[in-house]
Design goal:
By secondary structure, the protein is α/β, with parallel strands linked by helices. The protein is 30% helix and 22% strand. It contains twelve helices and twelve strands. It has an eight-stranded mixed beta sheet, sandwiched between helices. The longest helix has 18 residues.
Length: 346
């Protein structure tokens, strides 16, 4: 899976520029008083082109889902810009926002909590058309049947309630609902983490097939790099609100340059038992620092084995390390490639 070279000259479908989000911490039962702020997302920038899939990975709490919700305009950003098809949608509201949301849809982590238990599948899939004022009985019915077929469900499933389905089937319904309005960009927020491993593979294969069939773009959010590898064309690694490395998928897996990326990749189990035994696992010491009081300069420095005084005093920015021509960018003073995964498993 790779991005068509001809698309590289096109403007990005989605572009995020220096996006940040701070949340106020309040105390008091009746009258809230702001005492501090949590920096959930700190100056994040990336772009997604038509038909491209970007994997956004990192530990829980690093700001991945907050970034997604800002793009969808479910929450307001503190600063920065969000551009969709070259249009600034950072502060879009009302009918303008409604129009944009027809083209940007989301699939959530837990399909059961996002499907109305009192509604049959037919009603669930009809909702997007009614909300956006495009409901016409015959045309809507045809589109719903087409989308059901795309996700591997049958027409008889339309009369059932969500509790009558397995977890994998419910996630297929969630994907079908997101596809009903033919969006250009699908945000997938941990879409397989709540599923059994055997079902995860089915959903991942479905998402790959849909991407090729529909020429749709993905922002694929996950904490599991082994899952991201099968879906993404490019990968952005996030740590404590910052993107610390971005690269082509194969480039990142074969030559990770940031210590945090190397640690994440070293945790992926290898199919070859001998290679698994011989490989050295990078164990990070301590827990992620609190976003209320993040470390100065490089936020990874308290857990990094390469950290020096420079890392504690000078903030590293994403810089091109593009020796291979793959647009590899890293935010590290001492970035260096490391073969964390043996070539034979690549």
């Amino acid at each position: 899976m790779s991005t068509d070279p001809s698309l590289l000259s096109e403007p990005p479908l989605l572009e995020v520029r220096d996006l940040s989000k701070n949340f106020a911490i309040e105390k008091g039962m009746l009258f809230g008083k702001e005492v501090d702020t949590v920096s959930a997302v700190n100056g994040v920038s990336f772009a997604i082109r038509r038909g491209e899939s970007l994997g956004l990975v990192g530990e829980s709490g690093c700001g991945k889902s907050t970034t997604a919700r800002m793009i969808l305009r479910l929450i307001d950003s503190t600063s920065g810009q969000i551009l969709f098809r070259g249009e600034d949608i950072t502060n879009s509201k009302g009918s303008e926002l409604k129009r944009i949301r027809q083209e940007i849809q989301i699939v959530f982590q837990d399909p059961f909590s996002t499907l109305n238990p009192r509604m049959r599948v037919d009603s669930i899939l009809s909702q997007p058309f009614k909300i956006h004022g495009s409901y016409e009985r015959d045309a809507t019915r045809k589109r719903i049947l087409d989308v059901l077929e795309m996700v591997g469900l049958s027409p008889e499933h339309l009369e059932r309630f969500p509790h009558e389905f397995s977890g994998g089937q419910r996630q297929r319904i969630g994907i079908a609902r997101a596809l009903c309005l033919s969006p250009s960009l699908l945000i997938l927020d941990e879409p397989v983490s709540a599923l059994d491993v055997s079902i995860q593979a089915q959903i991942i294969n479905l998402l790959r097939d849909l991407k090729e069939q529909l020429d749709i773009s993905y922002l694929f959010i996950a904490h599991d790099l082994s899952v991201v590898r099968h879906v993404s064309d490019r990968v952005a690694v996030m740590y404590l609100g910052n993107i610390v490395e971005t690269a082509n998928r194969n480039e990142l897996f074969q030559r990770p340059m940031h210590p945090y990326s190397q640690a994440l990749l070293s945790a992926i189990p290898l199919p070859n038992p001998r290679e698994q035994r011989e490989r050295k696992r990078i164990a990070l010491e301590g827990d992620p620092p609190s976003p209320v009081n993040p470390p100065e300069a490089c936020r990874f420095n308290p857990r990094c084995w390469k950290a020096t005084e420079e890392c504690r005093t000078v903030t590293p920015f994403l810089e091109s390390k593009d020796e291979s021509g793959e647009n590899h960018r890293v935010a590290c003073h001492y970035a260096a490639p490391a073969a964390v995964i043996p070539e034979s498993t690549g």
